[in-house]
Amino acid sequence: MSVRLAAAVFALILTAVVVHGQRRDVFIASRNHAAIRYTSAPTSDAVAELNTRLRAGTATLQFDPQSGYLSSLLKVLNVPVDSQTLVFSQSSLQGPRINLHNPRAVYFNDTVSVGWVRGGDLLEVAVQDREQGALFYSLPQKKAEQPQLARDEQCLACHLSWETLGVPGLTIQSMYPLKDDKSYANGFTTVHGSPLEQRWGGWWVTGDTGGARHMGNVPVMPVDKKLAIANPLKPLPTIDGLFDTSGYPSLHSDVVALLVLEHQAHMTNLLTRIGWEARVAAAERTADAAARVKEAAVDVVDYLLFVDEADFTGLVKGSSRFTETFATRGPKDTQGRSLRDFNLRTRLFKHPCSYMIYTPAFDALLPAAKDAIYERMWSVLSGRQAAPKYKRLSRADRLAVTQILRDTKPGLPASFNGVIQ
User: Fold this and answer.
1) What is the pTM of this model?
2) Hey, CA dihedral for 127, 130, 133, 138, is it positive or negative?
3) In this prediction, what percent of the chain has a pLDDT beyond 70?
4) How far apart are CA 69 and CA 376, in angstroms?
5) Distance between CA 74 and CA 86 in Å, rounded?
6) Phi and psi for 114 in degrees, rounded to 5?
């Protein structure tokens, strides 16, 4: 997306906030509300900490002539290469450089995402601050004695909207193919509740989707139509041979990594939103502000427990080692179980509770927000919630999640020691 178009989109977003200021499913106050101060408040995130280390000389970044600081930055931020996903829709500030044969690579861990465009002027970094939510940085792809990553709020032109719940956040977009050069980009945000057949338009997808149709591996820009692969729905083992892959540290855009990234992006936004609602409620102390915290907690818990997750149609198989390496990170209970254990046959994870419950952003929530989340979680996990949508959580699921949390999540309320119906 060009800077001019991005600025226009942002202006529309600001107008929408004024016109629909009473929406209750998104954050409606300013990001620079006195209780938030997104632009000016001190930050505590992995990138800010790296900048401090770079200035002190306790950390360094090595420059590569082809990929710039990419490999070094991934290593120092502990972002695994096998998390690589590749998007070729022009949905970035560096959009003109992106196409089917020069896709933008995205790498991520639980709190950091790094975007790289081959031949681009900068690396794009999004990091989850424990209080401020998603912060955006850029790192010039020019060799320097003491490189520094700079906050870049022009990213909010696309990363602050109703799709991100009214807070600076992350989205995974699926794009429809454009008919011609005059057509306007047409796409939508996907989350773990989106049917697989609606996902990954404008993305390379490697691995096996278990027979599910999807929108990936199909050109979305008119100029790329002649470059289409013969059968985009056939499982693609790697991107090797499809285009010049020099500079890319991996030959994969792993379907399991894509599934995890979609879940994580929206979970990040939900945690930011409830955190900000709680801070505004603590400052304003009104019944409406307190009610908004409770309402946000319901949304957090439903997503945290995968209540609305789309069903898989068959066994999903990744193409890289992402499935194995992702599962090894994070705590395990006394039976060796983890919230990072995959299912991949009927759903994403074996135990339906998000690993994002372990993030610093969750731990930093004000007591009002955390208490509301835990109260709602226990209401669902104990079996007291009778709404039909909670039927998908079997007693065995609810019991396993509760037992894992009892062993691995410090500060869990005493209520979680109760009886599971």
Assistant:
1) 0.93
2) negative
3) 93
4) 44
5) 16
6) -125, 130
pLDDT tens readout for residues 99-150: 999 999 999 999 999 999 999 999 999 999 999 999 999 999 999 999 999 9
Count CB-CB contacts under 10 A for residue 141: 19
Give per-residue pLDDT as tens, 73-98: 999 999 999 999 999 998 777 888 99
Dist CA 287 CA 243 (whole Å): 58
Which among 162, 166, 170, 168 has a CA at the least distance from the CA of 28?
Answer: 166
Of the chain, the end-to-end C-alpha distance in Å amounts to 50
The amino acid at residue 326 is: F
Q: How many residues does the chain have?
A: 421
Q: What is the pLDDT of residue 92?
A: 75
Question: DSSP secondary-structure letter at 386?
Answer: -
Cα 244 to its chain centre, rounded Å, is: 28
3-state secondary structure 238-257: CCECCECCCCCCCCCCEHHH
Task: Summarize pLDDT for 400-418 with one digit per residue, the tens.
Answer: 999 999 999 999 999 999 9
Alpha-carbon distance 199 to 245, whole Å? Answer: 24
Q: How far is CA 123 from CA 105, 114, 200, 322, 367, in A?
A: 10, 7, 22, 22, 36
Of 37, 43, 84, whose CA–CA distance to 325 is shortest?
Answer: 84
Query: Are residues 388 and 347 in contact, defined by beta-carbon separation less than 8 angstroms?
Result: no
Instruction: Give pairs for 222-228: CB < 8 Å, separation 24+.
Output: 222/178, 222/179, 222/180, 222/181, 222/183, 223/99, 223/181, 224/88, 224/99, 224/100, 224/101, 225/177, 227/100, 227/101
Phi, psi of 259 (to 5 degrees): -65, -45
Closest CA to 117 of 146, 137, 96: 96
SS3 83: helix
Q: How many whole angstroms separate alpha carbon 402 and alpha carbon 404? A: 5
Q: How far apart are CA 210 and CA 196, in angstroms?
A: 10
Rounded to an integer, the average pLDDT of 248-266 is: 98
